[in-house]
Fold this protein.
Amino acid sequence: MKMMEETFQAAWQAIGGEMLQQPLWLINSLQPYDWGTTDVLPWLLGIENPQQQPQAEVWVGAHPKAPSQVVFPDAQFSLEQLIDGQPHAILGARAIQRFGPKLPFLFKILSAKKALSIQVHPDLAQAQAGFAHENAIGIPLTAAERNYHDANHKPELLYALTPFVGLVGFRPISEIVRLLVLVGEHQLLTWAKRLQKEGETALAAFYSWLLLLSGKELDHLLSAAGPSLQFQHEPAFAEVQRLAQEHPGDSGILSPLVLNLVSLVPGEAMFIPAGTPHAYLRGTGVEVMASSDNVLRAGLTQKHIAPDELLSTVIFRSMTPDIMRQPANKQPMNQIEQRFPVPVDDFELSIIRLQSGDTFPVGLLPEVELLFCLKGTITLTNAQGEPWTLTPASSVLLPAASQGWQLSGHGKVARVRIGPSLMH
Ligand SMILES: [Zn+2]
């Protein structure tokens, strides 16, 4: 560790501290998960994909598994190394005070052709307790059965770049009952009766039953339900059939009967709070999340599922997904920037749309900011120095030590900062 620090310091000295008064140009890595599309991210990044391999996510940030790289004229660092070496100059005092010397958020462009696993994320208190407990009983951090990889929560926001379909939170009980009756299979009818009678109090029992169905029981149920699923015009049934093809034998197949089916049009966003089961089914979008790997899976996956831990984390309550459609700007001067306020302060996403002739200030505060160009050609300038030109999929981090920048040009930029303080 000491050795690494010395190496970093030596390399850093050679570059000079004034480099952090400039934007940091990021080189981001691509994650080739099998649920990814083959064409969208290569198109966005302007790279070839001759083997037509799935390309699922671009990661922009300092996550230890795939940190963005920062290239200087005489050296290259990962953003993680750079933050470890120069936390104050990059993150700024407020971020360090609130979140410690780490980048509190991770930014992704995600492009799904097939469903991702159904997931639930713990809240902060559950993550802290779960992480401490698994450390105490000696489950290695790398073990497949490890549920808590850190002590942080993982709230997330999805902003649709194309039409985007997902499952989020429990449907109203009356809706679940309606769908179960429409399927008409006898076990589901029994559950429909119980849910109608007991309401939300029966939701946990029903969901556990669904989660623990064996592949054989599920096949049996699906073949009995087949004609209803096939011949009734019900969007949830179409999704069940699609999932049955993508993930045969997986108990997550029936989730569209229980979870809200959400379709976002480009430009809409949704926030996923802790304790809410969700799955992204298809589409391309920006995802911003708190820096954490705490994921409890609930189906549509080959990975480890821990039913007890999962069921203790899920909030068994019907909810209406929080879809953000209209600009939430209060200041009329701020029309260029559309902010997506979330109930956490780990991150805040905004979208900046510029027409020729517009200018917009960024990097006003001594705090870290991330800019990712989604469209067009955008110029970043400050009082001194050469302008920086951003084209689609290029990204820069504005260090806290680098202030007073201005955007101009024609296009669209995603901006992530730490959120406004929640303490009043
Ligand atoms: Zn998630």
User: Anything to note?
Assistant: The mean pLDDT is 90. Residues 1 and 7 are 10 Å apart (CA to CA). The first strand starts at residue 24 and ends at 27.
